[in-house]
Structure formats: structure tokens, C-alpha cells
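Could you please consider the sequence and fold appended to this message?
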Amino acid sequence: MIRVTALVDNNAYNKKRVQIQAGQSHTVSSRKKFSLCQEFGLSLFIEADDQSILFDTGAEGGFLDNADALNIPVRQAQTVILSHGHRDHCLGLIRFMKEAENPYILYMHRDAFRERYWFREDDGGYYMPTNCGLSPDYLVRHNVSFRALAPDPLWPLSDHIYLMSKTPRISGVEPLDTRDQIRLGEGFVPDPYQDEMTLLIDGPEGLTLITGCAHLGLINLCTWAEQLFHKPVLYYIGGTHLVAWGQERIDATIDFVNHSSIRAFAPCHCTGGTALIAFQEKCPSFIQFGGGTTLEIE
């Protein structure tokens, strides 16, 4: 079984557990009037292949409070993964470093430490810092055992769990968002998201794909994973970054999901309200997923 719990997300729902069997999902338990904190960020707790994995840590550390409320032993996680170097996925690590109960290994891409910005067009235009807020020196000073990776294109975490990188731009409908910038010398260039790592769980029938933001595009990520493993993506969990795009890209994503092998589609975080509503209305495989939700894939 694969179990994925959203510890913190842009949205917080009642505590609920959703079982997914052969592409059919149903809620088996739900608790009403259950208060969880929410923040613009993402943190997931993944249990698979005898491993406990903290995937991203949100922006403020609220995932730890939610984990307590949900009775999730996140402080005992054996592995911590930062999917990419944006603060809404990384800064919660600072609190986790103080409260972790067991030794753990931190995995992140070596390019996650880049100086990066989001270009805002309000107030005459300015560059808003979005970098992860961490540095190799900081992690070393605090005795964090970390691996700065550059998967080419896969890094095995176990017999069936991998980190995927170097995703090419295969789809013509998922271009770079040029508002995301990195500093290069004295100037700025569009961020190529070279540090984005996607978690893949290889199952007998197909793949479970878990992403932080999918800056590189849902279609690109799924297509690349299927090319690498020669298996279909059956379950998609995580961000889609469609909050930054218009209806044309949302429609293209819906078309891809509905014609793909995806049995359960659980978008969250940077998907945005417009896309979430469209997915719920038009994607039969859609599952509402956010803070407090546990998916159990059998």
C-alpha cells in the first residue's frame, strides 16, 4: 500500500481518508469540524516500500502542528525531500530540524540553492525573492545529513522509489513561465527549473507520481516518467502550477488527464481555484486533496 497524507496545503479540509482500489476511490472515514492550519505551501507525508518520507516542508512549519492533530509521526521520518528551491516548500525545514526525533537524510537538488525571484508587475514592476532560504553552510552548521543531487535522470531511494529530474520539454502547450527568474551574473534569466525533482513509486501495474509544483508541466512530467519506466502513470498527486496560467493551458491539461492512464488525479497547492473547479467538473479521476486528506492506494 502507498499512503500519502497532505500535512499542509493552501487549502485545509476535514480530516478524511480516501481509499483507491483499481481506479475507484471512496471516502472511508471523515471527521467534521476538524481545524487545521493552512499556508501557501505544501508538505506531504508518504509511507511506501517500508519507508516514511517527508516530502516538502511548507513555508512556516505549520505542517508539524497539523501532523500532531492528525496523529502522523512526521518527526520520525527517515527521509526528507525538498522538491525544489522555493521557500513555500523549504522554509518549514528550519523548524523540523529542531524537532526531528530520529536521524534523517535530506535530499535536494544541487541547484535548489540558486538565487531566484518572481517578477511582479504591480507597483511598477519588481523582483520578489522566492529562493529556498537555506544554504549548504547553514545545513552543515546544524549537522544536517544532506545529499545535494543532480539525478541523471533518476536517483533510487529504494527498490521501487525514485527521484526524477532532467525533465525535457516534450509538450508544446507547457512553455516556461518567464516571470520566474534566476540571477545570472548581473542580470536575470528565466528559471529553467533544473532543480525540480519528482517522486516516482514504481508499482506492478504502473507509476505513482508525486510532485511539489510541476513547474515543468504535468504533461511533460507524466510523459517523461512513462518514457523512463515504460509504464503508465496511474496516480498523480501534487501541484500543477496552473494558478500562473490561463484557460487554454487548463483545458489542455484536462484533455491530457482524461485521455491518459491516470486513475486517480489529486491536484493541490499551486493549482489555483479556477483549475480545481474545472478539474472537479470535467475530470472523472479527480479527487479533492489538501490539508488533512490521506490517500491510500492499494
Q: What stands out?
A: DSSP finds seven helices and 19 strands in the chain. Residues 250 and 275 are 6 Å apart (CA to CA).
